[in-house]
Amino acid sequence: MSQNILRRLLQGIPVVLLVSFLIFIMINMAPGDPIARLQNPNITKEDLQAKYDELGLNDPIPVRYARWLGNFIKGDFGYSMDSTRQPVNELIAERIKPTLFLTIGAMLLSIILAIPIGIISATRQYSIFDYLATFGAFLGVSIPSFFFGLVLLFTFSLKFSLFPSGGFTQATGINNFLTQLHHAALPILALGLARVASMTRYMRSSMLEVIREDYIRTARAKGLKEKIVIYKHALRNALIPVVTLIGLSVPLLFGGSVIIEEVFSYPGMGRLLVRAVWQRNYTVIMGVDVLMAVLVFLGNLLADLFYVIVDPRIQYD
Amino acid sequence: MSQKNENYKSESPWQIGWRHFKKNKLAVTGLILLTIIILSAIFAPVLAPHDPNNTNILKAKQAPNSEFLLGTDRVGRDILSRLLYGGRVSITVGIVAMSISVTLGTFIGLIAGYFGGWVDTILSRIIDVFRSIPFLVMAITIGAIWGPGLYKLMVIIGVLSWTGVARLVRGRVLTLREREFIHASRALGSSDLRVMLKHLFPNSLAPIIVNATLRVAYSILSEAGLSYLGLGIMPPTASWGSMLNAARSVSVLESMPWFWVPPGIMIILTVLSINFVGDGLRDALDPKLQKS
After folding, report:
1. In the 8-state DSSP scheme, what is residue B43?
2. Which value does ipTM take for this structure?
3. Average of per-residue pLDDT across B219-243
4. Do B225 and A26 touch (CB under 8 A)?
5. By three-state DSSP, how is residue A79 classified?
6. Is A136 in contact with A197 (CB distance < 8 Å)?
7. Torsion, Cα of B82, B88, B94, B99 (10° steps)
8. How far is CA A202 from CA A144, A206, B49, B80, B129, in A?
């Protein structure tokens, strides 16, 4: 088991390296540069060149990538290229928690809602509940998450001040889990809607497939209660394909968080990325992109481990 | 193709599919709704009551009224007209981006599945790399480097979303590759290209079509998201996404909902009907699900 985790971790390294190299090349082919916008227009060419040399921007791309990589391995993402010159690590460190709070929250929300709805839909196929759930699931995947976010913001924050319209923590006062949840509730709902919807459809069809199996008929035939048949025998098998979906939704959650954070002025990595993109702040873009790739990879790894818990037949060795 | 005998009338697989499709109420509803939306986009110049780009400061920020059925935006442009013209842009982006990703994905999937071996290994690793970074993160990064614009947007969305189709086609080709008709075709001296295009591609068409339909919906959603962030379609060009961009201002969001609610509803209706049609197509064309 632990050997398998190690092997998977090693497999992830070339993928992350390739991602970082591709992004590095793309960023460096981009027009415009961060120095030009920082300097006053009266700067001489010589001074500007000196500035480039100082930041190492005149070296060939492979040399610069190697330098970036060397620092990255040491866990150093370099310095922000805007006037603050803050270390990128610091910038990311203060924003990774809100983003993880948001994405993990949306993930948990989808699991908590989708699994019961899917089970009821499947066990009462063609009932009114099933039709409503199916239609709701279609609607859920068809609403742009940020538009749903705007509607939530408009309704529950601007018209009825039930939730704050931005931020993650309070400027003053106690910042415990509940205040954070209060700030993150609407963003989690907006980000989670599409995940709830698609997972519900998956859960329903997976459950429908399983309850037609012979061993379910056997369980019923030997006189087990319906509850035990469904929740003990059927559910466990129906969950297996749903776990795959959890793994697949990791990149979607991180991608979606970028736009949701913009809607709610939520201080996470996505908002950091969007701001960095406008400022052509290469080091920050690079840091956030690569970290997102690492997080997606770890999320997939976790989903794989979860597989083993749900399906003991899978043995990694 | 259809050789009709006087006594025996055979149905092509597509006719069978259509027969199944027609029975699906949601799919038919979706198709009708989608047709109306597409027609209203095509005939936007006829239907639009005003010029979508005609500004009039004196009539700016008007709530819906009899002259402007859906109101006017911050520079006095008619929202209804912009909505109709915006549909043209959003739907075009959806279709073109889908064509790029499906063409790319089909070719790569065919090659990976047909040749196998190291070709497959390399292509599969490339697919892994593309899948390991969130779409929107990558799209924003590239969008920021290239700058906004209609054509760039279509290319970005298309080029970043071919992996799903590629995996699908690859899997399909792997199961078809060892079938007798493929061996027969090769034995008759067909080139690799001919086997791929004349035999493997047509036999993978059903799942590709289903996927392509749903791709249009994803692409429309992606256009909306990127344009909302200001990295897609730029004003004054109207698209549903760029109209939603106005809602980034809190005062617009709070007190002028007629700016941003209509484009949102149009996106939902369009994507919903495409999803209904796609789901109907899946049921109709997927031989595994067909009972009769």
Report:
1. T
2. 0.89
3. 90
4. no
5. strand
6. yes
7. -160
8. 20, 6, 44, 38, 26
